[in-house]
Task: structure prediction
Amino acid sequence: MAFNFGATAGAGAANPTGAFGGFGTTATTAGPTFSFSAPTNTGTTGLFGATQNKGFGFGTSFGTGTGTGLGSGLGTGLGFGGFGTQQQQTTLGSGLFSQPAQTPAQSNQLINTASALSAPTLLGDERDAILAKWNQLQAFWGTGKGYFNNNIAPVEFTQENPFCRFKAVGYSLMPNNKDEDGLVVLVFNRKEVDIRSQQQQLVESLHKILGGNQTLTVNVEGVKTMPDDQTEVIIYVVERSPNGTSRRVPATTLYAHFEQPNIKSSLQQLGVSFSMARTELSPAQVKQLLQNPPAGVDPIIWEQAKVDNPDPDKLIPVPLVGFKELLRRLKVQDQMTKQHQTRLDIISEDISELQKNQTTTMAKIAQYKRKLMALSHRTLQVLIKQEIQRKSGYAIQADEEQLRVQLDTIQCELNAPTQFKGRLNELMSQIRMQNHFGAVRAEERYYVDADLLREIKQHLKQQQEGLSHLISIIKDDLEDIKLIEQELNESIPRGVVFS
Result:
């Protein structure tokens, strides 16, 4: 199995060994080929079937687990012819986005189901009414077989039947990745620690599965833990052309190659349980999905779910059928909660570190301010001495005389009894008195932190509540003792003396 992204492959007999036919050409071979021009679609139609077309997926926490396909038509006819042109054709088949036409077999199925639930004729007596109720119970539960006629096979009740009661509608985030991003999700049945420790070997194994072509490079976009010891790995493949340019292989093209039987078996040997292309839905696909309720979901409930959608631009309603789907959603939610808690712990540690750095920085700033003030004073003293030496021997100039007059005026204002000097003297007297009384009494003042004071108050309040409860118990006991003494006094006959 070989790959050739630059050369053009011939047809039929020209390439009998299954070589890759190149981008832009389609190789017709009998053996397995890696051709991004002719993706295959191996899925079946329908959203809730056991086997689905996994050409599109909403991620590990989107949808119903098995419903990862967008219909049998999506993904066919996707190819590109070289780096200059890209051709993409999307066909909406009878899968998720279309309402399939009712066949005669489906009509008979509905008639048989109605007969099993309302009017079975299996026994021909009053026991048929009991059988009808039993069939209704099975239909509500979504499991079992409904017998209604001796000549017709029983009806198989599944959780997709419209009478099943264990259904709900949730909301999932729509992917916003484009096909050009080339993101493909591979889910491994291995733990995240094992995947991360062997990430390089995994990339090399995927490169070998793609043929080991030197023009292809496998890159890991992200690794995420999933429930049940599974790990989601998002990859994309970059193709380099001979002229030096590079581009990502489209997601639908890469996924179609992974869905080939021989490639799929190789991926399963690596531990891949399933794969899907992570691409966004087109407006037409979203519209058609919302217009047609899924199988077994009441149209009224589906319409109400669309009305209750908290964010129609980002969220899309998805059906939840059965307890397994509910359990899966719960596990995914628990997993995401743990991841969010881990991220919150990391953020909390970062905030604590930043607070420590802020405290250290504030202390350094205060220290530098004091140092700057001291240096400013020293600089001013040096300037004064230098100016005195420079002006020694010269007469007082006019500007200096003006400064002297201003200083004398300020000095007079300060020395005035009713001005600043009187107030300063009064403040100094008060300070001396406070220092004197403080020295005599030797009083010490303590300041309690607000949080510590609040804790002390809370503790004292709890002690007070405990004492009040204890007092109430003692009062109740005293009343009981008085009642006992009264009963004893009444029960003892008068005149009887106990020695």
Notes: Residues 1-101 have pLDDT under 50 and may be disordered.
